[in-house]
Design brief:
With 329 residues, the chain is α+β, with helices and mostly antiparallel strands. The chain folds into three domains: 100 residues, Phosphorylase Kinase, domain 1 (2-Layer Sandwich); 169 residues, Transferase(Phosphotransferase), domain 1 (Orthogonal Bundle), CATH 1.10.510; 26 residues. Helices cover 47% and strands 18% of the residues. A hairpin with a 2-residue loop joins strand 3 and strand 4. The longest helix has 47 residues. The radius of gyration is 34 Å and the shape is elongated.
């Protein structure tokens, strides 16, 4: 949580112009988007375009996050983090406040998106997230503070993006920022040393958070409690094997977890297809039954119609015969 003195120093009202000391760009504050341990993020306007601006009195923190965003920009094909647009200082009276400007990523957060679109989207979004994490890990970074609040879904087409890189840490170092529910150290399932498995544990906990939007409190902790919560959730039943391995630190890379998730989905699809082929659907059974009844009714109707037609023919023949005899006389 951000300390009160920093929040007070960086607290500015809507309409306030932020003038860059070195580059001369001006940003007009629209509203506050959020704040964390190292700064406040505002929605601002620059030349008619909405952008996000993060300010802090901690210049080292700003420099660190800027370096992360610059590193992301070098990762070909990765769109996880926002695009860096500007870095400067703002003089507020006698105080110098560092800030950087980034792309404004607009859309619902992960939990809201899944609630709106349905649980079938869980696997789609998680596969995207794992793909981006793999690129990040290959470049020596661990995301660290990975949680649904930091994940926004843009689109269409739906695409997962991150709005906060404050917890991103160089591989091998101590995690800089974390949120307890998504932290393996909190659950007693590993250290807070930055490595790929730390992020993959958080991915597993994000999936639990989707099933339990209000989260749940730690009681016994450890894998026993998490396993119990997985077993109780209908939404997580098809991901059980993946979740056990992610939470136990058994995946060495995001690409490995992604591969097993894809394989699990394919297996589920095959089972569903097989069941569909071997067992007629209720609708199909109804249609077959309906066709049988229709054919039986048609036969009855045809037989009845044939008898009537025969009687009519016999009557006509009899009338003609009697008419012929009468005329002969």
């Amino acid at each position: 949580m951000m300390n009160h003195s920093l929040k007070s120093l960086c607290k500015v009202s809507p309409g306030t112009p932020i003038n860059g000391k070195w580059h001369g760009n001006q940003y007009k504050i629209i509203k506050e988007l959020g704040y964390g341990a190292n700064g406040i993020v505002y929605l601002t306007s620059h030349n008619g375009v909405q952008v996000a601006l993060k300010m802090s009195d901690n210049g080292m923190s700003i420099t660190s996050e800027v370096n992360v965003l610059k590193s992301f920009a070098k990762v070909q094909g990765s769109t996880l983090g926002p695009v860096l647009l500007d870095v400067d200082d703002w003089m507020s009276g006698s105080d110098r406040i560092s800030f950087y400007v980034m792309e404004y990523i607009k859309g619902p957060d992960l939990l809201t998106f899944i609630h709106q679109r349905g649980e079938s989207w869980i696997s789609v979004i998680v596969l995207q997230l794992l793909s981006d994490l793999q690129k990040m890990h290959e470049n020596g970074w661990v995301f660290g503070d990975l949680k649904p609040e930091n994940l926004i879904i843009m689109g269409p087409p739906p695409r997962i993006r991150c709005i906060d890189v404050g917890g991103t840490t160089i591989n091998g170092r101590a995690i800089k920022e974390f949120t307890e529910f998504f932290d393996r150290g909190y659950w007693g399932l590993g250290s807070r040393k930055a490595d790929p498995s730390y992020d993959l544990f958080a991915v597993g906990m994000i999936m639990l958070n989707i099933a339990y939007p209000k989260r749940f409190t730690k009681t016994t902790g450890g894998m026993d409690q998490l396993k119990l919560m997985i077993e109780k959730s209908r939404e997580l039943s098809m991901y059980k094997g993946i979740l056990y391995k992610a939470l136990n630190g058994q995946f060495s890379s995001a690409v490995q977890m992604r591969g097993e998730l894809l394989q699990s989905l394919q297996t589920q699809q095959t089972r569903t297809t097989t069941k569909t082929k071997t067992k007629p659907s209720p609708q199909r059974q109804h249609n077959v039954s309906q066709k049988t009844v229709t054919r039986q009714a048609y036969r009855k109707k045809s037989n009845k119609g044939g008898i009537i037609e025969t009687l009519i023919v016999l009557s006509v023949i009899s009338m003609l015969y009697f008419l012929y005899i009468w005329l002969s006389f």
